[in-house]
Amino acid sequence: MTASIAPLDGIKVLDLSRVLAGPWCAQMLGDLGAEVIKVERPEAGDDTRHWGPPYLHTDDGTKTEQASYYTCCNRNKRSITIDMASPQGQALIVELAKDADILVENFKVGGLKGYGLDYESLRKINPRLIYCSVTGFGQTGPYAPRAGYDLMVQAMSGMMSITGHPDGEPGGGPLKVGVAVTDVFTGIYSCCSILAALQARHRTGEGQHIDMALLDVGMAVLANQAVGYLNADDIPQRAGNIHPSVGPYQDFPSKDGNVLLAIGNDGQFARFCAATGNEAWAQDPRFTRNSGRIIHRKDLQELMYPLMKTRTTAEWIALLEDKAVPCGPINNIAQAFEDAQVIARGLHVQIPRDAGDQIGTISTVASPMRLTATPPVVRRPPPAMGQHTDEILAELGRSPAQIAQLHSEGVV
């Protein structure tokens, strides 16, 4: 961190969550400068520590049993292992919660009440606590007791029904998105809600309970597809890579592969036509306006498919780049990280980890939040399981002998 103070410097977060949505939220808070303590189960740890392959490697290239998945959402945290099923473990978490500003958890509804770690119990000892619960279906409603995972919510929310190629086409049928988007979006919405609650606490002095549900978020991020149905009674269908309301906004076969055009307005289409020597297309009543290009999409595609095969992907990008016509390649992830713009923005971050496990360096993706005065900084690598247990216990006032006893009793 530079001389500037991080936005959330001095804010303490207790992360009782695991897998992706909750940890993603806590990681964002950590990126913004909060001190995050992640509580994990002894021996097992967060579920994602075992979600492999792929696995992390040591400095000499030896594959470990530590899954790389965990590292995507747990940087800027310290890890302590606590058996919360034991009374001593519960007491330790209560002690940590007394001094916390924020708590993030994703247990089943009511799952923490028996441990005395639910919001109503903890608010009695810390009324300023902002307590964020992340579940599949929320704290209310007939599905509240159910466990919820990203794939299930992608299916239930309708997201899979609009993702993939139409029935009858090669590869047709509903598909999930290639990343657990409802988990990630839930983490982002949770972080936004927590920041709003912090601002409210500045005025009231009181914390509050935040009820985040994957299904709520999955429905919300349907965005234009949802409101199109709600307002026009039009049930969206799968359309592959074609945008249902804008065109031409899709991929095309090029001379050497595929190229993507993202033409979002009439001016861009007119410039595309001029650049390719097809000014008449922009004057054609069928194609002059976006609405016409959607109605007559097939007619336009019949003209464009042969045209797009006349140049390579690189040639199309070179032709259109200075015409303000969005055009680009379809990269795999390796190609994306080799892209000049990705490199210029410093999106690949390598951080050393000294946890006695010979892992050495861990790679992660830089935070996309670019605050000019108080930028996010990767201060801590994703921790080894329980790496900071003794350190955190010492901060709670435990002596070396007391810490050793907690270890021997299996509390930590």
From TrEMBL:
InterPro entries: CoA-transferase_III_domain, CoA-Trfase_fam_III, CoA-Trfase_III_dom3_sf, CoA-Trfase_III_dom_1_sf. The keyword Lipid metabolism does not apply. One of its GO terms (molecular function) is CoA-transferase activity. It comes from the Bacteria. Keywords: Transferase. The keyword Membrane does not apply. This is CoA transferase. SUPFAM superfamilies: CoA-transferase family III (CaiB/BaiF) (SSF89796).
